[in-house]
UniProtKB/TrEMBL annotation:
This is Thermosome subunit. PANTHER family: CHAPERONIN. GO terms for molecular function: ATP binding; ATP hydrolysis activity; ATP-dependent protein folding chaperone; unfolded protein binding. Keywords: ATP-binding, Chaperone, Nucleotide-binding. It comes from the Archaea. Residues 9-32 are annotated as: Disordered. InterPro entries: Chaperone_TCP-1, Chaperonin_TCP-1_CS, Cpn60/GroEL/TCP-1, GroEL-like_apical_dom_sf, GROEL-like_equatorial_sf, TCP-1-like_intermed_sf, TCP-1_chaperonin, thermosome_alpha.
Length: 519
């Protein structure tokens, strides 16, 4: 064929293939995993993330850390997706999944150096993940998921996270109360639970509100700031003079014509206010603007009106009070009104918020989270949302298992005991998976102040003799003990999802042997 070169790729394209590609991808995945490893457990450390604009986030939440990091490497991005998947599915365990994915890559790198084929590693990892799921099923505790147990689950999730001046137990009780309120015959309606944060008080002031809290306040200063036994209207329209859709000019030739136009305008505005008053509504939420003259007339009638509420806020009000969402005041009557035990405007710090409590529909509850600074309330909000998610997962998705690394020790032991029956080089991958799972209790031990190797030996010995062993944070160090006795419990769903997502991400990266990037 004459020996002429054949160009398939653009001359500016970059290609990395073979072991170089595998090494680059694995190194990137491991680096991202290592960035969150020190945050794991009750003695985990926080990270400070500073954006280009100077915004600061202080957290030890794995999903938040990884989402805030400016990561460009495609393989590293896959580890971020592991955390995102974990967060979306079960709401917690993001650091666990990320650390496990990184360690699976590290063990795979060792196997590749020993000339184990990537496909063999993938097959071994998938078989080991199935064994891990079996072990998790065996670890599910046969206990009633009563309030005390669920408080332990919520508290285990929040321990080590920033909870201000109050211990996790107090917040865990609020979380469980919220979940119980949102529980139905078909499970917990997670969307019915909101977390509203407000600076200006200590974290101990956090409370549960049976209803919703909105940032919108009355449109007129003379309106009432508290209404008991309130009849509520929700209007999806503008309470102002209607504008013509036609571009037209009107010639006014005398004062009588001008006065007639003004009278008509005034009559229209008075009609809006009168329609609200005649319906019997004490409080009206409007998604658009309310004219000053309408607001003034409503204030004189003792009606509390809130304007420019968002569509989502209007939806929350409807779900809480049972009001009908109307497109105009023309359809407003007694049947369209909802009800709330009380609606009050309260000042917290420098800001005012509106509480809608004891609604007739009463489907929504709000955890009103307090904190002294924006950084504090942001971290408390993350901790509360994680706790809410794990309690829901415990109730709706398979019960609870021992925490503190005990379940991971059981997983690794179960995989190793089965690995001997697996033939060929796949056995090496299965054993490597078990070794990778050990990174979780080992990291817990490190972060607690124990010697990682000694702790791992003690954990295996205790598990062998007692059937359960975890790393318990106690004082300034840690001890090996039974996490169930210490009330350290995790949802089984969190463990299952962490195993699945970490396995899928690591095996996908291991199979890549060619990276082609365009200019």
């Amino acid at each position: 064929m004459g020996g002429q070169p054949l160009f398939i790729l653009d001359e500016d394209a970059q290609r990395t293939h073979g072991k170089d590609a595998q090494s680059s991808n694995i190194s990137a995945g491991k680096a991202v995993s290592e960035s969150v490893r020190t945050t794991l457990g009750p003695r985990g450390m926080d990270k400070m993330l500073v954006s280009d604009s100077g915004d600061v986030v202080i957290t030890n939440d794995g999903a938040t850390i990884l989402s805030e990091m400016d990561i460009e490497h495609p393989a590293a991005q896959m580890i971020v997706e592991v955390a995102e998947t974990q967060e979306d599915e079960v709401g917690d365990g993001t650091t666990t999944a990320s650390v496990l994915a990184g360690e699976l890559l590290a063990k795979a790198e060792d196997l590749l150096d020993d000339d184990v084929h990537p496909t063999t590693i993938v097959e071994g990892y998938h078989e080991a993940s199935q064994l891990a799921q079996e072990a998790i099923d065996e670890e599910v505790l046969d206990v009633d998921l009563d309030d005390d147990t669920l408080v332990e689950v919520a508290e285990s999730s929040m321990t080590g996270k920033g909870t201000g001046d109050v211990d996790a137990h107090r917040l865990a009780e609020v979380v469980v109360e919220a979940v119980r309120h949102a529980k139905t015959d078909n499970g917990v309606v997670r969307d019915s639970i909101e977390v509203h944060t407000q600076t200006g008080a200590a974290t101990s002031a956090t409370e549960l509100v049976e209803g919703v809290i909105i940032d919108d306040t009355p449109v007129h200063d003379n309106m009432p700031t508290s209404v008991e036994d309130a009849s509520v209207a929700v209007i999806d329209a503008e309470l102002d003079v209607r504008e013509s859709n036609v571009d037209a000019e009107y010639n006014v030739t005398n004062v009588d014509q001008l006065n007639a136009a003004l009278d008509a305008e005034e009559e229209e505005l008075r009609g809006y206010a009168q329609a609200v008053v005649d319906s019997g509504a004490d409080v009206v939420f409007v998604t658009d603007d309310v004219a000053d003259r309408v607001a003034s007339q409503l204030a004189k009638a003792g009606v509390l009106a809130v304007e420019s509420v968002s569509s989502s806020t209007a939806k929350d009000v409807v779900e809480t009070t049972g009001a009908k969402r109307l497109g105009s005041v023309d359809a407003l009557d007694e049947d369209a009104l909802g009800h709330a035990d009380s609606i009050s405007v309260q000042k917290h710090g420098d800001e005012e918020v509106t509480f809608i409590q004891g609604g007739a529909a009463a489907e929504s509850v709000t955890v009103f989270a307090r904190g002294s600074t924006d950084h504090v309330v942001d971290e408390i909000e993350r901790a509360l949302n994680d706790a809410l998610d794990v309690v829901v997962a415990a109730l709706d998705a398979g019960g609870v298992v021992p925490g503190a690394g005990a379940t991971e020790i059981a997983i690794a032991d179960h995989i190793r005991s089965t690995a001997a029956s697996i033939e060929g080089r796949k056995q090496l991958a299965v054993e490597a998976f078990a070794d990778a799972v050990d990174v979780l209790p080992r990291t817990l031990a490190e972060n607690t102040g124990l010697d990682a190797i000694d702790a791992l030996v003690d954990l295996r010995s205790e598990h062998e003799s007692e059937g359960i062993a975890g790393v318990i944070s106690e004082g300034q160090t840690g001890v090996i003990g039974d996490p169930v006795e210490y009330g350290i419990l995790d949802p089984a769903a969190v463990k299952r999802e962490a195993i699945d997502s970490a396995t899928e991400a690591s095996t996908m990266i291991v199979r890549i042997d060619d990276v082609i990037s365009s200019s």
